[in-house]
Specification:
Four copies of one chain form a homotetramer. By secondary structure, the first copy, chain A, is an alpha+beta fold. Helix content of chain A is 27%, strand content 22%. Chains A and B meet through strand 1, helix 3, helix 6, strand 11 and helix 7 of A and strand 1, helix 3, helix 6, strand 11 and helix 7 of B. Strand 11 of chain A pairs antiparallel with strand 11 of chain B, so a sheet runs across the interface. Chains A, B, C, D: Keywords: Amino-acid biosynthesis, Aromatic amino acid biosynthesis, FAD, Flavoprotein, FMN, Lyase, NADP.
Chain lengths: 366, 366, 366, 366
């Protein structure tokens, strides 16, 4: 991964700022012959789209994607695909306050220190608006996966908001699309709604934990030792705005286990190995086992809040800042489709890498 | 990052297996003029070397590094550096059991499923022995950092073994080199010694959490949005054997915070911005703030244990496995210098990247 | 270089087809603070623009570039820059003939064999229209060079059309912009005009040789042994449509020389080494010497001609083909600004690479 | 391609200097299951080995290759392969003259200007000795090709020495292995022997042209637009020491042709398209046609000659230099196996890339 590109063979380069004319993803290494149209990609963008309820920013963006290249007569041609989303709701308001002050906990200050200048309009390139491009690329990745390896399913959902985690005994996959938090726990959804509403009114924000799983991934994907599947998932998730932690399978909890407890014992089923448990989160030695791939990541609270915080100006004067604008009280909500997109891209990338280096040389047990 | 290489400009490619004749690191993009010799690198390898006490594997390897290229008259020439470590204590014992059976929780099965064959001697390429090459490369990275940006310091230490975390109130940096666990908490060190000794006698193993910090890193390093400093740290740590989780700054705990709590407020000091706290772990928007960079990662327990576990053979027959060999009861111990090495490499890489793309264009506050 | 991206640090990814809605270049690794606007880039696109005289295709494209990202208040921000050119003159005529038949000497057949489908409208991705995106990226590279290393000048010109080479004794740099062939030999320009006009009327086409020089490049650029300056120039030029050969300095003629003849002897001037000659074309061991960098490349004749040629259809039937459309009788003409753009990109890329790996560690003679 | 690595998926990183303890190639992305041993690789190294006759350097190096990793029980495991060649005949003579003076036409001066220091012993990293590592990697690439796509054959030979080109009417492939110049023209071989002997006695050297062909390459390899097959071949050949020019098919001669002449007309044969000619050298639009791939490159004369040439010292003093040492009077001879190795690597790389991105989606005609 380098600068604005991620992926080895399926390479996604994103571009664009929060308040520029447009943003998008230039996607290279796309397999040819994949059936795709704008509507297919749009469904995933709609999931991430701002302004859908009171728990996300009130900026109104249709986030309509246009395919500008790489697709002919409804199929990918194998050449680079350009996915563009035009910005339409960039308010021409006064950014004076943010232009001179740095928001604590925000990339304002580091972009300035790094580049000597920054596009302060809505956060410029550091804005989470960049993730729209990822979701578009993820939609293309999903279509390619459906073409090459039908049966792979990627799904994300929220498992914690602030200190409030879901109750795993209430986990109901059918609930995920039924609430604004993409959570499988309907009781938590209600609790969070009240909690977040209050935080929003208080001019505050809160963090969250998202879980993303991939089902149906065949055994054998991942390229040790620096292109491991978990390495690339970790990088992909950590590259999302506001993410501060990533774990695979039992993650940090695996540090508390003994070797006896942590062993996912193996039996032989009709279609190959069957595991007694999935502490590993579907990855051993950086290679998929065929089990469900399980990843979680933590999103910190938005730094753009209405409560005043101490900060300094570009000139070095001490002051306070209040961020008015239109901001998400819990950016974790919209991080769900972003995490899904990253997972879809990583899995497709490794499917192509594996096909390239290994082909059908893999071993069959039994 | 791809396959066996990591880094953008400072590129480290490792090679070698646990029981092959040698292993090493081919290091490209090394700045010229760096004073280096084998002794400098050796000190870090000695820190990771097996067989130093009863808490690590009893394999006896001197892990003596040889510099085969890229250095002339005590200085790097700017060409690729080859760092080779010969294996000397590969026992020619019978690997029959492991050759046919897969250790639960180990990469045995996925390497076979991926590649159609595997080097079962000591785990082959999937062995943590590969990390010796990383430590060697890290030693070179430290020398280059000392040359280009004196004052940067990278240090790792263990903060948790199994369920037993250190007490931060006892944190004493001077203790770190005084115990076999590289822990800053002398009381924990004693407690862990007894705990791990019992686990070892029981034929069991345990996980751990390691913290790595980098001090003195200037503001401005990191290349958004896919070469973010935290993205690359996450990938670097997750690529280490047995690592299942990575976090930066407050990490998963940041999910529990509100925006008001999480804000690292900024004041103006004599040398630039001063932060009231470091929830961010020294990275905002993927770019270093100039604060201490703080990373933690979790290592799962070794899967090679003396307690029998259920598994299958290559032929698909169900059986049990007991791993005799010589194994670490807590691989987290030797992961400390490995984590340090990865951090040093990532920071050097970003120093070079920044110098290349940005040079001295960065902004000065005040 | 990989797929649709070229460059190491200054990375240009192009996208778009001849008859799609738009094409462009996603440019990553751009140094921050470079003054740039659309007009600056447009001047180079205007040089390549079709339909300017009877010697180039009659397709009328304004080739107006839009900067969609990475520039704020007239300066680059260090983030990815999107340069988009909308297609406006894609005729909705019948492509039936080309859709089913393969033009001999054209990529029609190999794109089909590779990808299983192709965008036959105007050649799709294989069209030289892609080079507009290169010229746009080259304009940005020139601006960055002017910012970082003022005094570097890149210039291309045609030195041969078909069998007719220029007379070097008439070489007059001032003539280059005075004729439609960008040639420094005014006599050749007149001769070629008549020659090409006849070929065009005959429904034929012809090849050409272009020379591109870079003046003012400092000594020390180029990264041995696989990122040599000449290696990257060769790749850059060979990647241009219809190019079949590349040479540096004396090129193929150097094979005919003895070591005594080929030696560019070195004396000491007031500002450093002075060479008696430049057989090397300004590059030794893959690193610039400080002399003029000289590169030549050969462009084959357009395969899209009005004279019937034998071919086959997708179904494998033997037939003949005549390509009507609007085509350049000598694509070499418009390859001049493309070659310049590639040279500018390569030099900027190596300036950044050198700054990143080496900084100011280079040696000074005397 | 970057710095010391070439290739996209089959990635070769070379290391080592002329007079260091060893040199080698770290090869990543090797397909698993390829039968390989040291003897197979050695046969190609023996072809390049110095000191075999009076027309090459008298340095005596066995160039014995050792496989240090990535191979188990006679087959590649899919992990990184280390190929090491120890240097044995580095004479500990006085290099004082070369240490202070720069050879005209040699990389001495540019390495110093770039890196601020250089390993002057035998040219250090800039020595053609580095190409031994390429030949070793090429041997591995040939074995992988034989495994994955039997029938692909790569062969190089010399077609010109100084001004003396072969007579194509005498082209006899059986002659290639019968003379010290690897030329298919037995008459030229005799002529060149006398010519080169005289040049050697005169303390002079001479350039050459090598042709490398690949037969049996399937249609469809090559990744437009910056990973074109010819782009990568051009880069690979231009990266070889002393190479100044590369051409594909008719190369520079194609500039002299009209479109009517240049068209390789297509008919339908029993196994697919049949071409009337091969002006294109087997590549259209950067993708292989299935015809023979034909590449030529020019090698300049060795700059290390016994005839005195004017130069300067590191201190900037004007002087003369005579290079005693042991040098090839025509480095083109040993460039033959190097060119073959590069071609084998590029084709394997593109076979893997194609398999990864496209798989079996390619189109079949008829």
């Amino acid at each position: 991964m380098s600068l604005n590109t991620f992926g080895h063979l399926f390479r996604v380069t994103t571009w664009g700022e929060s308040h520029g004319p447009a943003l998008g993803a230039t996607v290279d290494g796309v397999p040819p012959g994949v059936a795709i149209d704008e509507a297919q990609i749009q469904q995933w963008l709609d999931k991430r789209k701002p302004g859908q309820n009171k728990f996300t920013t009130q900026r109104r963006e249709p986030d309509a994607v246009k395919i500008l290249s790489g697709v002919f007569e409804g199929r990918t041609t194998g050449t680079s695909v350009q996915l563009m989303i035009e910005n339409t709701d960039q308010r021409s308001k006064d950014y004076g306050d943010i232009a001179q002050k740095f928001r604590p906990g925000h990339a304002d200050i580091t972009y300035f220190q790094k580049y000597g200048l920054r596009d302060y309009r809505g956060g410029g390139r550091s804005s989470a608006r960049e993730t729209a491009a990822r979701v578009a690329a993820g939609g293309l990745a999903r279509a390619a996966l459906a073409h090459l390896a039908p049966g792979i399913e990627v799904q994300g959902y929220m498992v914690q908001m602030g200190p409030k985690a879901i109750d795993r005994s209430r986990f109901d996959r059918a609930q995920i699309d039924q609430n604004p938090f993409w959570t499988p726990d309907a009781v938590a959804a209600e609790d969070w709604a009240a909690y977040l509403d209050q935080l929003r009114k208080d001019g505050n924000s809160v963090g969250a934990v998202i879980e993303v799983v991939a089902r149906g991934v065949p055994a054998g994907l991942g390229a040790p030792v620096y292109g491991k599947l978990d390495t690339d998932i970790a990088a992909a998730m950590m590259s999302i705005n506001a993410v501060k932690a990533v774990e695979i399978g039992d993650g940090f909890a695996s540090a508390t286990l003994t070797g006896v407890e942590n062993a996912d014992e193996i039996a032989m089923g009709p279609d190959g190995p069957v595991y007694s448990s999935n502490h590993a989160g579907g990855i051993l030695g950086g290679i998929s086992t065929g089990q469900e791939i399980v990843c979680r990541f933590a999103v910190k609270p938005t730094s753009s809040i209405l409560t005043p915080r101490k900060t300094i100006t570009v000139a070095g004067e001490e002051t306070e800042i209040v961020t008015k604008g239109r901001h998400d009280p819990c950016v974790g909500i919209r991080a769900v489709p972003v995490g899904e997109a990253m997972m879809a891209c990583v899995i497709l990338d490794h499917l192509l890498l594996h096909r390239g280096q290994v082909g059908d040389a893999g071993g069959v047990i039994g």
